[in-house]
Design goal:
This protein has about 200 residues and is mainly alpha-helical. Helix content is about 50%, strand content about 5%.
């Protein structure tokens, strides 16, 4: 990496932290490292950004990462969330951007080969067996082989939300969904709309 940066004329800082020892010490054998590893790396990035006075932290997640994260959260965490293109950190000090979220993994692989980018493999996360992300990736590949629009449809769904057809009561309240559906003359609920009390059961 240093040779590449210097050859291309980029200003750079390389930060070295021993996250591997922390992760392997804290995570029991047979469990995946991803959750703790990502938190440690995020903390290092946030700290470094503050030291450099950076206003943005750019991450290289692509469209397939976003799709897989959405499916992982849906299937294993019971949440509808993915990786936004722009996100302000919880402490408000950092803004994370993902400028590559509209590019597919295949497109970026081709670009990296054409440009001769140095590729550094991850020998921690990607080397583990039975990773849920690998399973989800294989599921999406299988579905996409049968219907080539599957991945594009899942990604499109992130920008095609219908709050009136979801069960998040806070979201419905913020969006004014149920107020908009009330019939002024009766104060009742419009036909075919499930009352919020029923949704809570």
């Amino acid at each position: 990496m240093p040779a590449f940066f210097e050859r291309e004329g980029y200003e750079y800082v390389i930060v070295k932290e021993d996250t591997y020892s922390v992760v392997t010490e804290k995570i029991p054998e047979g469990k995946t490292f991803c959750s703790l590893c990502s938190r440690l790396r995020r903390g290092i990035l946030y700290t470094q950004a503050q030291k450099l006075g950076a206003t943005k932290i750019a991450l290289g997640h692509h469209r397939d990462d976003v799709i897989e994260t959405l499916m992982l959260n849906l299937l294993y965490a019971g949440q509808l969330k993915a990786m936004p293109a722009r996100l302000r950190s919880d402490d408000g000090r950092n803004v994370v951007i993902r400028p590559l979220v509209y590019a597919t993994e295949a497109e970026l692989t081709e670009l990296a080969e054409l440009k001769g980018f140095p590729i550094i493999p991850c020998d921690l996360c990607g080397s583990q067996d039975n990773l849920k992300r690998k399973q989800v990736k294989q599921l999406l590949t299988t579905l996409n082989d049968d219907n080539p629009t599957v991945r594009a449809n899942v990604f499109a769904a992130l920008g095609n939300i219908r709050p009136s057809h979801l069960y998040d009561l806070d979201l419905r309240r913020v969006m004014g969904v149920d107020e908009a559906l009330e019939e002024p003359q009766t104060g009742g609920v419009a036909n075919n709309v499930v009352p919020l009390t029923a949704l809570r059961r």
